[in-house]
Amino acid sequence: MRLLTRADLESVLTMSETIAVVEDAFAEYARGNVRMPLRIGLNMPDHDNGMHGVMHGYVGGSVDALAIKAARLGGGKIWVILFNPEDGAIRSLMDGGFITAMRTAAVCGVAAKYLARSDAQVLGLFGAGTQGRTHVTAINEVRPLNLVKVFDPVPGKAAEFAKEVSAKLGIEVVEADDPQATVAGSDMISVTASTKAPVFEGRWLEKGMHVTSIGSHGPQVQEIDSNTVARAKVVVDSKDAIMAEGGDILIPIREGVISEDHIYAELGDLVTGAKPGRTSDDEITLYKSVGLALQDVAAAERAYRLAEEKGIGTLVEF
Questions:
Q1: Among 52, 60, 172, 290, who pairs with 33 as Cys (CB 3.0-4.6 Å)?
Q2: Which fold has domain 2-100+294-315?
Q3: 107-291 has CATH 3.40.50.720 classification
Q4: Which residues contact 51 (CB under 8 A, 6 or more apart)?
Q5: pTM of the full predicted structure?
Q6: For residue range 188-207, what is the model confidence (pLDDT) as tens digits?
Q7: pLDDT tens across 70-99, in order?
């Protein structure tokens, strides 16, 4: 068994590698080669009613990997256990925080590849946290950016983010004054903040914008408003998962603003070519993700293979 710390993973798993393997995993999902129950969770009354969640999946075909992710929600530890699909032996125990950050951003990169305009280069970002940092990196891989405008309600957080990310990626990153300024003039809008209420108004969106929503999930949680959903061509990671816990889609359906048929496609449909992505420069597109186990499985498998090739990590006899 190979133990992989966060430092180990950071030394081997790049965003480009993660985007590539996550794209492969969504193709396998569309082909019916993924086994993936919905996430399960439980609360612990003796520990401040803290939540513990588990995501479990097998991705066949070109990926051929089996893994479980277990997480203490709300800032606790996250672990990924990678198994040998043949006999169930543990191949690797690895830090799940880094895997989660990378795979969440990577799927947004895949979505932008198919849904953002080919000339998109300005990103309006809501949320100056870990997901925001990896998200900019992922988007920049598929749509090279020349400007990022970031908004965060916590004083000083966006300014610190702008300084750090600009230095790291060599692109201009500035603090936006308010939500409307974040949207205005942007080619792409990304919501990576964990909020329970919409962070911008759909009427602010301009023709040709691409919106990504990954910050929150839950049947009662809505980080983008119903007008945004109604105006957009909507692509989701999984219809089953969205209909179980995607409040951004469920709430407009309950309001009667849209029907379930308003969901245009799953991301895997675009990857395999079953449906086209963006079909004009004027349409507004929306990618809504609640996060799937297949992303963790694929990213963990790629990290493990790279670490094995380079001799990274600690081998443990078990």
A1: 60
A2: ornithine cyclodeaminase, domain 1 (3.30.1780)
A3: yes
A4: 41, 42, 43, 44, 72, 73, 74
A5: 0.95
A6: 999 998 788 899 999 999 99
A7: 998 777 899 999 999 999 999 999 999 999
